[in-house]
Amino acid sequence: MNDLAAMVFQKDGGYDLIGKNALNCHPGSSRSKFLDLLENPRTNVYTIEKNGEKKMIYQDPWYEGNKYAGIVEISLPLPEDVPNFLRK
User: Fold this and answer.
1) Are 48 and 55 spatial neighbours (Cβ–Cβ below 8 Å)?
2) Residue 42 belongs to what domain range?
């Protein structure tokens, strides 16, 4: 967890979330999707919009050496006017 993530999740505990079960941070259908990612490691990428801010969420298996150890998640804010180029 970096400083920005600790600030974003401050109301949920911030840095105190380190070492806690991440499933507890995912209610409802997002919990079942997250559990499936934990049980079936793979890359999962999607976008969300919350409070008028768009973000890309990138989740990927995390390994320590050759041993699967969980999921790393990167959340990137996306500007409303971000250009999209179609290339061939």
Assistant:
1) yes
2) 3-78
Residue 30 lies in a domain: yes
How much is the pLDDT for 2?
92
Residue ranges of the chain whose pLDDT lies below 70: none
From the list 47, 54, 13, 44, the residue with the least C-alpha distance to 22 is 13
Strand arrangement, sheet containing 53-64: 44-50, 53-64, 67-78
43 belongs to a structural domain: yes
Count of domains observed in the chain: 1
d(CA 70, CA 39): 9
Stated pTM of the model: 0.81
- Residue 7: inside a domain: yes
The sign of the dihedral angle between the CA atoms of 35, 18, 60, 25 is positive
Give a yes or no: residue 86 inside a domain.
Answer: no
Beta strands in the chain (DSSP E): 44-50, 53-64, 67-78
